[in-house]
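Purpose: get a first structural picture of the assembly so the mutagenesis plan has something to point at.
Setup: two entries, given in the order below. No constraints added.
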Amino acid sequence: MITVNHQKILLNSNHLLFLSFDFYRSTAPKESQQSSSASDDFAEFDDEEFDGVASAVHRPPAKEDSKHDDAFEEELADSETPAEPSESSSRKSDDKEFKVFEEEAEYDDDVLVEEEKEFVDPVDEDLVPGGRNVKKEGLKVIDVPEHLRSKWDGFYLEFLLLIGLLSYALNFFYGKQKNQKLASTWLDVTRGTLERNFAVVGDDGTLKEPPNVNSDNYSPVLMKESEHVFSLWCSGRVGCQGILIDLKFVKRQDIISLISRMLKPASDLMEVNVTLEDDFEPLIFALGSKKVVSKNLKELQDLSYFCDGRKSCDRFKLPQYCYASELAEAVDLILDTELQKFLKTYPDLLDYMHISDQYTGKKPDDPNAGSASGTTAPAPPPTSSAVKVLQARFLMPKYGRTQPEDMELMLPCLRLVLYFIDKLKRLKLSKDGKSKAEKNRARMEEALSKLLHSQRQESQQLRREERVRMEKERLMTETDPDKLRKLEDAQAKRDRKRTQPKMKSMMVRMK
Amino acid sequence: MFEISGMSSTSNGLTSTAGDPRRANKVVRYRPPAASDSSSSSPSDDPVADYMNLLGMVFSMCGLMMKLKWCAWVAVYCAFISFANSRATEDSKQMLSSFMLSISAVVMSYLQNPQPMTPPWK
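Result (structure tokens, whole complex):
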């Protein structure tokens, strides 16, 4: 009996296994019968005792029932039918155990279902080709992020950006090349005139010997400040120390500036800065379009200090130009027939011209400078840094769409500058004019010295106050009475010394 | 060609005084304006390159720290614009480093999140 019971225990545990496997199979479609080969694995468990159970296991499912409880109960019911009468008593006990198992099975239903799910797919895929479609009902589909390599269609923004970068790079190279071509064409056009007027053309300051026109290894250097700015320095001529010509082209290499130029057109510029010689007459004069002259009157220190205001060139029949001058006679001297002829022949070339012997650049941005001196007048330019200059700015034609052949028009502009260099060397003001100019400069120097003096006094006062404050702090913080006494004595001595010199000088006088 | 009446009697255009105006003994060597005058206007003439350089670095850091792809792309554009507007005297190492930083920001943001960039209107 014991052995029978032992066998029964074994049998019961194996029942559970068989039942669970049969449970899985019963939920699958009819094709699962093909997995009968799997049942061969369990052939070793085939025995008389297992006949009832085996019949329950091998019996095909009566109906395709998704309800696992019903299938399981059916099997249980089937298994309860006795195969042989001799086994009835054992069957009864088995029934009880089956019931227990049934309860456990019910309890483990969810587990079985979950376990079934673990095993369903691989089994189902083998047996049921369209098995997945059955499972998709009621499933929630979540968007899975696309892998980098799977689809390129989604990256259209990135492709657009890359195309933008490529176009920027292409435009950069094209614009750079165009600007360089314009600069080299300009040099070819003006080189002859410059070489006839200057001993050194195209000096960049790095060579040991400057590129002399008459030397064998002469080669002018057009300095490249950036992709759109080129400079040329020439020297060795009467009337000036040197001439710096800046070619400031529009930024053809930058797409952003290209777009901004569509909104606001800008021209290529040729800026000429001539450093005049020291024997130049005291003269301050500016000529240009209304906007430019007004702006420079506000910004440039010498113009704002010495010139009264902007005046129109209507009497010269040049309505689009204005001038600002320190002396009235200088206007007629500068705006002579040649300049008027040039302005009428080439109306849009000259943008601005400035002649000054007190040029110091723009006014400083320090707002405290005026308040410190207590006056609202602009601060006078310091004479130490003033230079004598002739500055001219010419606009290249076609508003930024300059072509290499347009560089020919820059030649008369350059000749105008050379003409003025010679004219200013010969220029002589009248006595009245010169005396007035000298007075203005003396007044300016005086104002400057006063300003400097007041600034020096203020700084001295500040230093003195700071020193007194420091001494007081030391007195307050000093705890040692001896040291304190010493400090007080020293301070009293210093105060006496300060008041003493006045007394001394008086005593000397009386003697 | 227009004419002038200077001391010279020639009338075939602008001419200077009679004789050769060149003086080899009055040669003055070129001095770069930044070296001679500290308050020169050339550094402040075109601040675009400096602003774009700074912006590029800021956008690169934003793209790297906050994993924003569009920041990284804008940084690349800023680096390009800064390079295009830079002066010849500027250090090329700084340009190169800002380029490398922006490209690394783009690469890192895509490595961390391989999804394509979504436009703001979606």
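DSSP finds five helices and no strands in chain B.
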